[in-house]
Design goal:
- The structure holds 2 protein chains of 2 kinds.
- By secondary structure, chain A is an all-beta fold.
- Chain A is built from no helices and 12 strands.
- In chain A, strand 5 and strand 6 form a beta hairpin.
- Chain A starts with a strand and ends with a strand.
- Chain B is mostly beta strands.
- In chain B, 0% of the residues lie in helices and 56% in strands.
- Chain B has no helices and 11 strands.
- In chain B, the strands form 2 sheets. In chain B, strands 2, 4, 5, 6, 9, 10 and 11 form a 7-stranded mixed sheet that branches. In chain B, strands 1-3-8-7 form a 4-stranded antiparallel sheet, with no helix packed on it.
- In chain B, a hairpin with a 6-residue loop joins strand 4 and strand 5.
- The N and C termini of chain B lie far apart (36 Å).
- The chains are: A mainly beta, B mainly beta.
- The interface between A and B is medium-sized, with 23 and 26 residues.
Chain lengths: 114, 114
């Protein structure tokens, strides 16, 4: 069975500071994708960053970067220079190559303090 | 156009009513999805359409009836719902019939069954 675990239900960060959200996963597949999605109060799930398991290089998107540790099955999200607009629920998700289904973690609510 | 548009944004319906949710995208995506999300929980997959054909039904009760009239439009017909069906219903689309490319989500329809 595939699982995704987010052990931090809630995190807080001061504006302009850096925060790291944790995600661990388990799968027996060798070819898969990992995602971080952001869901602000507006409700829309927004793709923040995507990582292909066969790529060793960590994905980055502007202020967002991941630390992908394949052997440890860890996929953490680092947000640099946090902004008030980063406040949201963040979901980590796993998808096996060739399938349609995402396995979501339970989410981490991020609060950004002014 | 890089959006998935869902209407209505809010819907209140009685248990004997029939209503429909609508989802539209003009990104040329050939896979479309319906997800259900309860408060403070991750989204749960309901249906997958690929090339306008129903590919996956995640054992959803028959009171939910999906329809894909064309490659841009996805409907979810609701009939005889129960109060426990109250949730946020999210539509998503993707470029290919796998999750690896990442989804584009709509803002959802907040459904309340009374």
């Amino acid at each position: 069975a595939q699982t995704v675990t987010q052990s931090q239900p809630e995190m807080s960060v001061q504006e302009a500071e850096t925060v790291t959200l944790s995600c661990t996963y388990d799968t027996s597949e060798s070819d898969y994708y990992l995602f971080w999605y952001k869901q602000p109060p507006s409700r829309q799930m927004i793709l923040v960053i995507r990582q292909e398991a066969y790529k060793q290089q960590n994905a980055t998107e502007n202020r967002f970067s991941v630390n992908f540790q394949k052997a440890a099955k860890s996929f953490s999200l680092k947000i640099s220079d946090s902004q008030l607009g980063d406040a949201a629920m963040y979901f980590c998700a796993l998808c096996t190559s060739g399938t349609y289904k995402y396995i979501f973690g339970t989410g981490t609510r991020l609060k950004v303090l002014a | 156009d890089t959006e998935v548009t869902q209407t209505p944004k809010h819907l209140v319906m009685g248990m004997t009513n029939k209503k429909s949710l609508k989802c539209e995208q003009h990104m040329g995506h050939r896979a479309m999805y319906w997800y259900k999300q309860k408060a403070k929980k991750p989204p749960e997959l309901m249906f997958v359409y690929s090339y306008e054909k129903l590919s996956i039904n995640e054992s959803v009760p028959s009171r939910f009836s999906p329809e894909c009239p064309n490659s841009s439009l996805l409907n979810l017909h609701l009939h005889a719902l129960q109060p426990e069906d109250s949730a946020l219903y999210l539509c998503a689309s993707s470029q290919v019939y796998t999750g690896g490319a990442g989804y584009t989500f709509g803002s959802g329809t907040r459904l309340t069954v009374v």
